[in-house]
Amino acid sequence: MINLKKITAAILCLLSLNQGTIFAAVKKEGSQMNRADICKKNYEMLFNSTWNPNVGNDPEMMEILQKYIFGEVFTVGNLDVKMRELITVTSLSVQQTLPQLNAHINAALNVGVKPLEIREAIYLCAPFIGFPKTLNALGVLNEVLASRKISLPLEKAGTVSENERFVKGSEIQTPLYGDEIAREMQGLPDNVGESVSKFLTEFCFGDIYTRGGLDTKTRELLAVCILTTTGNNVTLKSHIEGSMKAGNSKETIAAAIVQCLPYVGFPNALGALRVLKNVDGENKITSDFKQPFKFGEVNPYSKYFTGTTYLNMLCTKDDVWNSSIGNVTFEKGARTNWHKHTGGQILLVTAGEGRYQERGKELRILKPGDVVKIPPNVEHWHGAAPDSTFAHISIETNLPNNTSIWLEPVKDRDYK
Ligand code: MN
Question: Which of 303, 302, 358, 357 minimizes the C-alpha distance to 330?
Answer without folding.
Answer: 302
